[in-house]
Amino acid sequence: METRTDILELPSDLYSRNIIISEGIKKFKKDRGLERIRVLDLGGRNGKLSLFLDAEDELALLDRREGDEENLIAGDATNMQFGDDSFDVVTSGDVFEHIPPDRRDRFIREALRVSSGLVIVAAPFADGQNEYAERVVNGYYKRLTGTDHEWLAEHIENGLPSAGDLESFFRSERVGYSQCKSNNTDNWMILQSLIFYFVHFTAFQKNDEVLRSFFRTYNENIASIEDEAADCYRRIYFIAKNGEFDYSFPYVFDRKAKIDLIDEAFIVLAEAAEAMTAEFVSLHGHIRQQTDAIHTLENQLREAYRDVLKAQNAAKRQEQVILTMRASKFWQAREALARIVSFARRR
Fold first, then answer.
1. Which of 25, 135, 308, 345 has the maximal Cβ count within 10 Å?
2. Number of folded domains in the chain?
3. What is the CATH number of the domain that holds 222?
4. Which range of residues forms the domain containing residue 29?
5. Angle, alpha carbons 191-196-201 (nearest 5°)
6. Span 191-216, pLDDT tens digits
């Protein structure tokens, strides 16, 4: 089971989303004086949110995909079977952009319906550099693998949601909201590129220790390496069903810290490339050894084949000698004499 130490080594895109969502949930609990809450995570299969929540809280996952989590419920988030106000908090992490555009309002209405207090929606939106960044990163993935990235391709096909449209919807529904951001877009591009590189060349990586170490550095310093004033890949909305709820992540941007992080990212990439090159060299040497061994065996086989041919030819010559002898008058006379002797013995 993953521990608090382990989660610092989760992919930073996943970690940053979950840490902001979970800290917002904890503030909601404190503000409302709640000791234990029920949380529903929409599309939460393999989302790791349980690692970030307080131990006493109850978490249910709703997803269209099957999985082995005990608290996973199969269902459609735009048409849920739960009753009104079934959960204290309903959250979704990077799911909203996968909902077809004509069903996104319904998705939010359903989340508001089954929540008694707070709805959290985290997603990339079509603002700033996000659409450009996704095309670039998907193109990089396609260069590595020959195919589009499943989720990015769906983003591109659906079109990222509009933050302005979503905020207009909140106002029309007369619900209060606050928001914060995560993952500067340029940071997100670096993170995804590193992950895709390592995953694609996993056959040549002895382990992912270098990448996990990088994630740890990133995750421990999120507050200083993310600039909320810059383009960010993700917005996280905290929507209060009743009253107001204000939450913001405590960013204190440090430009030097970010520069150091980018330097480390390229060092990680260079080290991975060096490791892969060394693996290729080693593999090439092994292949040469095997090739030399195969050539030796082939030569031995040819020699053995020639010996077999010589033996076959010698056997054929001996067979011909025998046939010639059997066809001779001497052999015929010998056979006749043998028959006479045999007949005389029987008498």
1. 25
2. 1
3. 3.40.50.150
4. 4-253
5. 130
6. 898 888 877 765 444 557 778 888 98
